[in-house]
Write a structure and sequence with these properties.
- The protein is built from 10 helices and 36 strands.
- Helix 1 (about 5-10) packs antiparallel against helix 2 (about 400-410).
- An 8-stranded mixed beta sheet has the order 29-30-32-31-33-34-35-36. A 4-stranded antiparallel beta sheet has the order 1-2-3-4, with no helix packed on it.
- It has about 600 residues and is α+β, with helices and mostly antiparallel strands.
- The protein is globular and about 65 Å long.
- The protein has a domain at about 355-610: 3-Layer(aba) Sandwich (Rossmann fold).
Length: about 600
């Protein structure tokens, strides 16, 4: 379409879908869109598709959907300030859009997790690393029952150690399930708390270092359990009345990533990921038979049934923006799919304006096969940009990435590797990153991928750059301090860790267990590993171009990381550039800032690749 400027404007205004949820009565679906305006906002649409989506929030700061109220008449949303992640909760009624009723205080001195309204419409349940008695921020995340009329905060659970605990209230409003990491940072156990504050006890423990999670059935009595083994995830059903646990799927040949039971449903929705592609199935609770959805182009993930054998789900690919749709599983793949979010109505782009994701495989330094995605321009490439996903325990999908699409439009090859540690390739592959800790063999995977592209004649020495956000930013630091300039000539880390000790000490308290899990302990336990994997200690190895990008409100990888590394760069006499955004947190998400970033990155890599 049109000129490069027109394409960028259209790309940045293309909405990106986050966290869709169907109401309990099945009549509505709500979600968050970023890109549809200057900030992220919450939208709602009827599941029968009779009218266009309605915008529920319209503010200068990002608003994200948290949950539906039990009566299906309103949603709870959270909003922070400039990406600082210190969220305030609001209620927005679907018949009074854009009227945000505050439920918690603005600018809290704590980080809030979850948020559900009790059926009595008076109590609000959430997690917060906050001691209401003293008003002080604390390390662990406690579970609260907040009385919206009196303001009383009753502590329902007091985990001992920090962790990202989002409580799950059952439909009857009697009990809460939540996960603790008190025993080991690599494991989680399921605990049950009484909403009256009468009990708080462990109910599922498959091992101190084993991850176990649970979510309620609509009946509020049973829970769906996902428990990990050394090789795979298995699915079971736990009953609160007799505390029995029965495993229904226990297959080492399957890579199940998620499962849940929607409201009004007699099926379990199962998401299975093989080589970064998701295929979903429905497990019939009565017959205990499982049926896979027929293959479709891209991904189609069911959310909830809405009557007459039809479901609401989300579909997407690298040429299809994520769209909420209504469909009948029995009619797929050729049956009619009705769009509910109508995402194509909001853009001048068409499917042909997006580069497709092509699979690319190679072998790492130790012989392990790795897979990623390769995007190529229609003309001779100006160079190759490596875009590394964050996490590291996440994975890149066949899905539209605006930054990648803009690079391709400008004439770059884009390489998107799913290095070891990524999800979507089995538990053994995900857990392999823990053998070395951050900055280990997964960085060899990335280098080997670049070299494989060169061997294939796709990438050229001296014309490869790298960028990524969060762990992708850390990987960009690894590349520029370890790889020769023929392999990586330029690096643009975005919100990437530089000093892992500083990062550990300054990040959100509930994120520290993740560092401990990945690194095999805290800085006091494995100090040499933290030193060796902190790229701030090796900046004198930098030989290529360097652009450091940071959101100044980032509470995850804080700006202290930038201050530490720029001091080291200055001491070593290494040139660098910085690009900072005052109104961004962990990642650059506002369209106006993405425009600045994308244009600067293209200019940066162009300049780097022209250097003799």
């Amino acid at each position: 379409m049109g000129t490069a400027d027109e394409y960028l404007e259209a790309l940045l205004s293309l909405p990106r879908l986050w966290g869709p949820q169907v109401s309990r009565d099945g009549l509505w679906v709500a979600w968050t869109w970023s890109g549809a305006g200057p900030a992220a906002d919450v939208y709602v649409a009827p599941t029968d598709g009779w009218t266009r989506p309605v915008r529920l929030t319209d503010t200068a700061d990002d608003s994200y959907l948290v949950s539906w109220t039990p009566d299906s008449r309103a949603v709870l949303v959270e909003q922070d300030r400039d990406g600082n992640e210190r969220a305030q909760l609001f209620r927005v009624d679907i018949d009074r859009p854009r009227e945000m009723q505050p439920l918690t205080e603005p600018d809290p001195n704590y980080f809030l997790r979850g948020g559900q309204l009790h059926p009595n419409a008076r109590w609000l349940v959430y997690g917060a690393n906050f001691d209401a008695a003293t008003g002080q921020e604390i390390e662990p995340t406690w579970i609260y029952r907040h009385d919206l009329e009196s303001g009383e905060r009753l502590v329902l659970a007091r985990p001992v150690k920090s962790g990202s605990t989002g409580p799950r209230l059952n439909s009857a409003g009697t009990h809460i399930l939540y996960m603790r990491r008190d025993l080991h940072p690599a494991g989680s156990q399921v605990w049950l708390a009484d909403v009256e504050g009468g009990c708080d006890r462990e109910v599922l423990n498959l091992g101190a270092d084993v991850k176990t999670g649970a979510s309620w059935f609509p009946d509020g009595r049973r829970a769906l359990v996902i428990g990990e083994t050394k090789t795979h995830k298995r699915i079971g059903i736990w009953d609160r009345t007799d505390e029995s646990l029965r495993w229904i799927i226990d297959d080492a040949g399957r890579n199940i990533e998620y499962a849940f039971v929607p409201h009004r449903s007699d099926h379990i929705v199962i998401g299975e990921v093989q080589e970064a592609r998701t295929r979903c199935s429905l497990w019939d609770l009565e017959s205990e038979r499982e049926e896979y959805l027929p293959p479709v182009a891209g991904t189609l993930a069911p959310l909830a049934p809405v009557g007459d054998g039809e479901w609401v789900g989300v579909c997407y690919s690298s040429r299809q923006p994520a769209d909420l749709v209504r469909f009948s599983p029995s009619d797929l793949p050729s049956g009619e799919v009705v769009t509910l979010s109508r995402v194509w109505d909001r853009t001048s782009l068409a499917a042909d304006d997006f580069a497709p994701a092509a699979g690319f495989r190679w072998h790492s330094s130790d012989g392990l096969q790795i897979k990623g995605w390769l995007y190529r321009p229609t003309r001779e490439a100006r160079g190759t940009v490596v875009c590394v996903h964050g996490g590291p325990t996440g994975h890149s999908e066949d899905r539209i990435n605006k930054q990648i699409q803009f690079f391709v439009r400008h004439g770059f090859n884009v390489f998107d590797p799913n290095y070891r540690g990524s999800t979507g390739f089995g538990l053994a592959f995900r857990e392999a990153i823990r053998a070395d800790g951050w900055g280990g063999r997964e960085q060899d995977d990335i280098r080997a991928g670049i070299e494989a592209l060169m061997e294939a004649g796709i990438a050229r020495p001296g014309k490869v750059g790298i960028t990524g956000t969060s762990y992708g930013g850390y990987s960009s630091w690894c590349a520029i301090t370890r790889f020769p300039p023929e392999v990586v000539a330029a690096s643009a880390p975005i919100c990437g860790m530089t000093d892992l000790v500083v990062d550990y000490e300054t990040t959100r308290p509930d994120l520290r267990p993740y560092s401990e899990e990945m690194m095999g302990g805290g800085p006091d336990e494995v100090p040499q590993r933290y030193h060796d994997r902190s790229l701030v200690n090796f900046v004198d190895n930098v030989r290529g171009r360097l652009l450091i990008v940071q959101g100044l409100q980032d509470p995850n990888v804080t700006p202290q990381n930038v201050r530490a590394v720029t001091k080291a760069l200055d001491r070593a006499g290494v040139p660098y550039e910085t690009l900072a955004f005052e109104d961004e947190g962990h990642g650059i998400s506002r369209p106006k800032n993405q425009k600045t970033l994308f244009l600067r990155l293209v200019e940066f890599f162009d300049e780097a690749f022209l250097v003799p």
